[in-house]
Amino acid sequence: MSNRGKDDFDEILEVPSFEYKDRDARIAEASGKGKKKAKKKKKNHKNSKFYKFTRILAFVYLIGLVAFESVLVIMDVLPAPTLIALVVVMSLLSVVLFIQLFFKNIKMWAKVIATFMSVILILVYGVGSAYALGTLSFLDTIGTNTENKNSVNVTREPFNILITGMDVDGTVDNQGRSDVNMLVTINPSTGEMLMTSIPRDYQIRMVNHGNATDKITHTGFYGVNDTIGAVEDLLDVKVNYYVKVNFDTIVKFVDAIGGIEVYSEYEFVPVKFDTWTVKKGWQHMTGSQALAFARERKAFKEGDNQRIKNQQAVFQAMIKKATSSKTLLLSYTKILSALSDYIEMNMSSQEIRALVKIQIAKNIDWKIEKYTLSGHDSSSSTYSTGGTKVYVMAQDADSIATAKEKINAVLTAEK
């Protein structure tokens, strides 16, 4: 083959090779640009979805905020300065979050942070609103609908609350003996509180039954008004409010808060729980154990006097455990649901919330004093037993006079 023919042949072979290489490069370049465009399009699509989500979240957040603030106002337990400060802080924070969530020209990292914070706050607002509404419902359930002619301004005026405990199981409307009777005198101005305990067998007059004599435990058979009348007559006071509980109240409450730690002055076996030995010192008690401990009197020389001490120990342990932040947080709804059928009072929901409000505002460090009426053993027929004589604790005039003085001192004290 001539040189000219060879060159032509080489040219024929080499030209397509360059063309193929160039075409492959263009295809590869076009393919790369296509992938980039597809990736960018996919990213923009994801961002668009996220922006739509954050906009919806912004409005959901505002709804949750408004609902929570409305519940706080309705609940009315926070002092005005605290409530205003809280609303202002939440509102300022909400403006920042809303801007971050709603507008598109916000950097992605800022939107992510705002999304996380808003979801957390929505949960907080929801849980807080549920707790508050549950509390309002609970207070409305345990309160009575009857008008209370003895009600006072509990945030300013001293008042008396009678706590009466029935020796029956079941719901609180079941009648029985009134085994626990404690008059609590409270002065919100001075921060003084006096707990006057009346032994179950203490002799009283049934003012609603012709002033017939009986012992205070029997007044429970005739209703809480008879118990109130007997206490008012005995101590010459006006009972402004009452709280009525029974055996199941103690059991269910203690179990709802996970048991309590109680100090016992003696080792003994409760009659109502003879498979369990109470050790001297501190010990953990379930609801049934706490009830048996509080009811026992036959195991002690002091009888009912020691039982009153044990009841006070149980009440103090319940208050201490129930008011701990951990217990309230973890068992709040459980406590409310457990007690709704087992406690009754004639203090309104508004009055209870007013007491909570003043406690938060003033952080009152209550000065608590305890006193128990004393008497002497006796035997007498009563209104409830007819002509049959039964054991009663006859009144001690000096003890009653001392109780009246102490109660009056708290009621008339001025800051």
CA-to-CA gap between the ends? Answer: 129 Å
What is the helical fraction, as a range of percent? 40-55%
The shape, in one word, is elongated
Q: What integer is the average pLDDT?
A: 85
CATH architecture of the largest domain: 3-Layer(aba) Sandwich
Number of helices: 10
- Domains, number: 2
| Class based on secondary structure composition and strand pairing | alpha+beta
What's the CATH class of the largest domain, please? Alpha Beta
**Beta-strand residue percentage:** 15-25%
Give a structural overview.
The chain is of the alpha+beta class. The chain folds into 2 domains: 3-141, no CATH class; 154-412, Aminopeptidase (3-Layer(aba) Sandwich). The protein has helices spanning 3-75, 80-102, 108-142, 224-235, 247-256, 287-295, 304-322, 325-339, 349-362, 397-412; strands at 159-166, 178-187, 192-198, 203-206, 212-215, 241-246, 260-264, 281-285, 343-345, 367-372, 375-381, 389-395. Strands 9-6-1-2-3-10 form a 6-stranded mixed sheet. It has a two-stranded antiparallel ribbon with strand order 4-5. Strand 11 (375-381) and strand 12 form a beta hairpin. Helix 1 runs antiparallel to helix 2 and helix 1 (3-75) runs parallel beside helix 3 (108-142). The protein starts with a helix and ends with a helix.
Could you name the key traits of this structure?
415 residues, alpha+beta, Aminopeptidase, 2 domains, two-stranded antiparallel ribbon, 54% helix
Helix and strand topology:
Elements: H1 3-75, H2 80-102, H3 108-142, E1 159-166, E2 178-187, E3 192-198, E4 203-206, E5 212-215, H4 224-235, E6 241-246, H5 247-256, E7 260-264, E8 281-285, H6 287-295, H7 304-322, H8 325-339, E9 343-345, H9 349-362, E10 367-372, E11 375-381, E12 389-395, H10 397-412
Parallel strand pairs: 1-6, 3-10
Antiparallel strand pairs: 1-2, 2-3, 4-5, 6-9, 7-8, 11-12
Helix pairs in contact: 1-2, 1-3, 2-3, 3-8, 5-6, 5-8, 6-7
